Amino acid sequence: MITTDLSMALPEIFLACSATVLLIYGAYAGNKTAGFVSALSVAVIAVAFGLIFFGDQKQGLAFGGLFVVDAYANYMKLVALTASGFGILMTQRFVEREGMARFEIPVLMVLATLGMLMMISSNDLMSLYVGLELQSLALYVIAAIRRENLRSSEAGLKYFVLGALSSGMLLYGCSMVYGFTGTTDFDTLGTVISGLAAGDQSPQVGLVVGLVFVCAAIAFKISAVPFHMWTPDVYEGAPTPVTAFFASAPKVAAIALFARLLSDPFGSLVSEWQQIIVFVALASMILGSLAAIKQTNIKRLMAYSSIGNIGYALVGLAAGTQAGVEGLVIYMTIYIFMNMGTFACILSMRQKGNMVEGIDDLKGLSKTSPAMALALTIFMFSMAGIPPLAGFFAKYVVFAAAVDAGLTTLAVIGILTSVIGAFYYLRIIKVMYFDEPSASFDKPIGAEMTMVLTVATAFIVFFILFSSPIMDGAAIAASALFAG
């Protein structure tokens, strides 16, 4: 039911108002309050999380059907907010130590998070575009926030140019879909396309071409092959906490949007879009597992690792079933903890006050910093899919959904690429435990990093003991999406 009740968008309204207040306060107080603004930004994210988790939100459609609130949207928003909160928390001490304390960074992250929540609740191609651009415009700026740094400026410019190209592709695809169906509303699109399928009519070629363009644009946002070209350079050039943010929260929002778009309005065209997703998943898994092998910079390695992980998540989407979407939701939930934990370790790699990013800099870490070596080992084993860590269950649910949907070959290739990918994860463990120590890292690492590492490590290790709430929540979210 469509309603004008603004309380349905209370978390988004709260984020928008809070970001505006923080921006005005920072503009008047100056960069000397950057740490305080960052702490307030984390609090704002926490309040938005609480409004969804503890609030009694009405579910349905709002703003003329442009905005939808259901169990799926609420679950994915909680995951995105968790990743955003970790990202802002990890930024605070880094910007102070690097002499780049700017209050704009956490405010831009809050605005990007607002865009993510709007994307997740999009129920129209127009609201989809607005949410995507709100997120992207903020990310363009923080990618190039270190204007005096050549690599950061290059990363921001490359991301902006290619992002503008993907936005053009998205608009072109949306215009073609509108031209051949007469609507941009998801529910009406679903009805029109279902009517074609019920009447045994083949979808018009223009509609399928429009869908391909939309899929290509969203594939860029999640850095899936063959639209991944920006990822390694942007990950390496952007400040490390910004890279951590890029690799988690925006991908959760984009892939949540992807799943809603393909499962709801275009659900009847599953035979058409399934071919696209299978190809993208295969290419992402293969490239992610092979290209990372020769990397010596750990941030570039994580860039290719994230490409591979998106490929695994898309295996669940390729299944085109409720179980597949459930697997995708579980995978992205686990992924953000693995990713944030790993980047917390990378952010702690400081020698004599300077950041180091080389894999060789981890030599002998087990002797100089055994606790951090153990934490990083846990994250590497989890990403490799070693049981009983959470990463094993993440891959298991998506591969099981693919097999149940008849995509056995895709699942087998996924398992093989996972085995190949284990090589570079295990190489990091070998460097830490079997090579002679290099210079030790600076201590202490800070309360923020300690908290992120503790929470992420506990989640990965003890997931098997408290997996029921995650599994049940993902099942409810997937059923809500398919019920719609």
TrEMBL record:
EC number, as in UniProt: 7.1.1.-
Keywords: Cell membrane, Membrane, NAD, Quinone, Translocase, Transmembrane, Transmembrane helix, Transport, Ubiquinone
Compartments, record wording: Cell membrane; Endomembrane system; Membrane
One annotated GO molecular function: NADH dehydrogenase (quinone) (non-electrogenic) activity
One GO cellular component term: plasma membrane
Keyword flag Transmembrane helix: yes
EC class name: translocase
Record domain NADH:quinone oxidoreductase/Mrp antiporter transmembrane: where: 122-421
InterPro entries per record: NADH-Q_OxRdtase_suN/2, ND/Mrp_TM
TM spans (from-to): 6-28, 35-54, 74-91, 103-120, 126-145, 157-180, 205-230, 242-261, 273-294, 301-322, 328-349, 370-390, 396-426, 447-466
Reaction catalysed by this enzyme: a quinone + NADH + 5 H(+)(in) = a quinol + NAD(+) + 4 H(+)(out)
Function, in words: NDH-1 shuttles electrons from NADH, via FMN and iron-sulfur (Fe-S) centers, to quinones in the respiratory chain. The immediate electron acceptor for the enzyme in this species is believed to be ubiquinone. Couples the redox reaction to proton translocation (for every two electrons transferred, four hydrogen ions are translocated across the cytoplasmic membrane), and thus conserves the redox energy in a proton gradient.
Subunit structure: NDH-1 is composed of 14 different subunits. Subunits NuoA, H, J, K, L, M, N constitute the membrane sector of the complex.
Family stated for the protein in its record: Belongs to the complex I subunit 2 family.
Protein name: NADH-quinone oxidoreductase subunit N
Organism name: Kiloniella litopenaei
